[in-house]
Amino acid sequence: MRVIDWTMWQFGPVSTMMLADLGADVIKVESLDGDHGRQFATVAGVANALESSSAYFESLNRNKQGIALDLKHPQGLEVMLKLVKKSDIFVENFRQGVAERLGLGYEDLTQLNPSLIYASATGYGPKGDDSGKPAFALTGEARAGSLWWAGPDDGIPYNINGMADQIAGIMLSYGVLGAVVARERFGVSQRVDVSHLGSLMWLGGMRDGIALLSGKEFERQPRTRAGNVLWNCYRCKDDKWIAFSMSQGDRYWPTFCKALAREDLATNERFARMAARNEHREELIAILDDIFIKYTRAEWEERLDAAGDLIWERVQSIMDLPEDPQVTQNDYLIDFEHAHWDPPSGTRRRLHSVRRRCQRKGLRPHTANILNLC
């Protein structure tokens, strides 16, 4: 299937990148000065490592072909319309009215290609007084109530770093695939509209559902007041962290206490049952903090493994992922060839290691498949 990708920044490009990953022939159409994402020199304080391009742009636009058109020029618009006539899907993420002014709205393009699936990435949805407001990830997250998800209970909204663009991109590609199935089954073309606002509300469905059904705001839970001490993170002697994820607290509590060599905590009536641990959680978490800080994470991992049935994991950073056997053995990060990027020596060694694994499996790293810059 051919996809015309008339999008920029992150929301739209994520959705079309996912379609490209599934094998679609995606043609990214940019203005003559390019997708504005190409111009990002730094993102979240991280300097761009690519002199001739942008890591931000490249991490969102793999597996695509590209063309630059001046859509205000008759010949540029003519090229776009010829592409649309031969395509299956058209994706855009411009403010309401921009596509229509250029003759690229849903009605315009479906007259030209009646089987076309037309997908729009918007901030607040196609209806309502605010449907035409400009939006980016942070404004969508703010409107959807998402900035109260994370951080300490200090009354300050916390940035969740572009999550709106990622989940909205996933939702848009999901909607497009639903429209593809409908077209194949019933012969109908559809317009798909996905917004930051709607996508973030869906992402927070569990939290929102509890809050709206109970009539109470979902509370933040700083780690020092976690409602379940076995659904929490603890710092080790070497300043590394371990996360525990055991919602069935009473089932795992005795084994957990055994791993800590503190069986007395399992029989202490203040901590023996879930309700009691919740009531005395700040006191108990302080006790657990004092215990975990005595040993390194590697020492704790050995003790936790030996204890038996516990659900825990090390808290990793992004830079830990290329060294993680689960990541590499499942090909969650793969090798790629780049025309301009010269990776740091440590990363170069990892890339060579991946290349050797591919060769042993009889696989050839594909130059276009740059899954997750690493």
Automatic annotation (TrEMBL):
Pfam families: CoA_transf_3
Alphabetical list of InterPro entries matching this protein: CoA-transferase_III_domain, CoA-Trfase_fam_III, CoA-Trfase_III_dom3_sf, CoA-Trfase_III_dom_1_sf
Example GO molecular function: CoA-transferase activity
Superkingdom of origin: Eukaryota
UniProt xrefs under Gene3D superfamilies: Crotonobetainyl-coa:carnitine coa-transferase, domain 1 (3.40.50.10540), formyl-coa transferase, domain 3 (3.30.1540.10)
Keywords on record: Transferase
Protein family (similarity comment): Belongs to the CoA-transferase III family.
Protein's name according to its UniProt entry: Succinyl-CoA:mesaconate CoA-transferase
Source species of the chain: Geodia barretti (Barrett's horny sponge)
